[in-house]
Design goal:
By secondary structure, the protein is mostly helical. It has helices at 2-5, 14-29, 40-51, 61-71, 81-93. Helix 3 (40-51) crosses helix 4 and helix 3 (40-51) crosses helix 5 (81-93). It is rod-shaped, with a radius of gyration of 26 Å.
Length: 114
């Protein structure tokens, strides 16, 4: 019982103790809260880590980015493949990341040599 655990609990009215116990039971029934959504910088960091790691297939890339973020405690339920790829493309175009996956079209690589 609670009276053994907390000193001075015998001075608290019985109705208040019952109310506290009921509130505690209700709180335990709720789902545990998942992590927060990843910020843009968090996604960029995960994209860079996954892209520069061991060789992967482009089809696996968005899932691996989500896994990395979930390992860091983020909620990735609203993170779409499109956002992951847009972040990757932006980082490559700005020169923050090499095109490790070789999925972007580079004009200099495909120019006509006449």
């Amino acid at each position: 019982m609670m009276s053994d655990e907390i000193p001075g609990i015998d001075k608290i009215p019985e109705e208040v103790l019952k109310e506290i116990e009921e509130a505690d039971k209700r709180q335990k029934r709720t789902r545990p809260r998942r992590g927060r959504r990843p910020a843009r910088s968090d996604i960029m960091r995960a994209v860079a880590e996954v892209a520069s790691g061991p060789l992967i297939r482009p089809e696996e890339f968005p899932d691996l980015v989500r896994e990395r973020l979930e390992q860091q405690g983020f909620n990735t339920s609203h993170l779409s493949d499109k956002r992951v790829w847009a972040t990757y493309e932006e980082m490559v175009r700005r020169g923050k990341l090499r095109d490790y996956l070789r999925v972007l079209y580079h004009e200099s690589n495909y120019s006509d040599s006449e």
